[in-house]
Structure to design on (275 residues):
């Protein structure tokens, strides 16, 4: 416990300097369609802290930043970095959709969505190029607030994704109230469906129900061909995971875009980085 407190104190002492020195880097994990061609549909922006050449796992700093609210600064910084890249890439890959994670810590800020819009405007980027991912757990105890934020995001033209669906607080009933575009199914849901027919049936039902509500579906954490085929067979439209491509620095993702190749399949055997 004492060692953990010391580590957290060290991180807190370094976090602002790390932000100022651009030690927080954006990695991009491609999202692909499950139509049999593995077409690139976009990417998720993921933060990595690179200090003195060493990558610090998000699990070591994100929970602390959520607790001390530094996550608010970091989220806006990541949004700014993503918009810079979208503007840079749009000349040869227009209509690219990048999803950006936003903490529930923003939900009580009445200026939250306006600030996101201002960042887009400052780089000349359309809000339709950004998909805001907010975890389903954000609805726990604050569904009315989350619904209002989702409606405001939609009014400004952002795409909206409910992230980590099935990871803890899932309520099928809440989906009818949230004007989201995408339902992102958590990897844990998929893991259970691999060996449990009942879980498989439930997964299929969730996918069909999301479709009936006008929502697209994507599943994260795909590691095998079997999982990809299972999801495709159940009607899931998109996927991301190490079976297709691992999170990569912006220059590596740019190579995919510059090559005008919409087909990728970069297997990997290290699921720990797919976070």
């Amino acid at each position: 416990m004492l060692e953990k407190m010391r580590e957290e104190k060290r991180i807190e002492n370094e976090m602002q300097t790390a932000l100022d020195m651009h030690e927080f880097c954006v990695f991009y994990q491609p999202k692909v369609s499950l139509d049999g061609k593995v077409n690139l549909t976009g990417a998720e922006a993921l933060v990595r802290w690179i200090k003195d050449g060493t990558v610090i796992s998000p699990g070591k700093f994100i929970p602390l930043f959520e607790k001390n609210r530094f996550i608010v600064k970091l989220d806006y910084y990541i949004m700014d970095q993503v918009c810079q890249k979208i503007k840079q890439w749009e000349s040869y890959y227009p209509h690219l959709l990048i999803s950006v994670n936003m903490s529930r810590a923003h939900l009580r800020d009445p200026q939250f969505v306006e600030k996101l819009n201002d960042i887009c405007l400052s780089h000349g980027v359309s809000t339709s190029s950004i998909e805001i991912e907010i975890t389903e757990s954000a609805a726990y105890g604050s569904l009315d607030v989350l619904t209002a934020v989702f409606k405001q995001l939609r009014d400004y033209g952002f795409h909206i994704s409910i992230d980590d669906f099935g990871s803890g607080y899932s309520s099928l009933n809440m989906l009818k109230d949230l004007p989201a575009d995408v339902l992102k199914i958590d990897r844990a849901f998929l893991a259970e469906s691999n060996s449990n027919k009942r879980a498989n049936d439930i997964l299929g039902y969730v996918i069909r129900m999301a479709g009936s509500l006008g929502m697209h579906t994507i599943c994260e954490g795909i590691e095998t061909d079997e999982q990809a085929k299972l999801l495709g067979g159940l009607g899931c439209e998109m996927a991301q995971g190490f079976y297709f491509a691992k999170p990569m620095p912006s220059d590596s993702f740019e190579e995919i875009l510059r090559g005008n190749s919409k087909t990728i399949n970069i297997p990997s055997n290290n699921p720990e980085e797919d976070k």
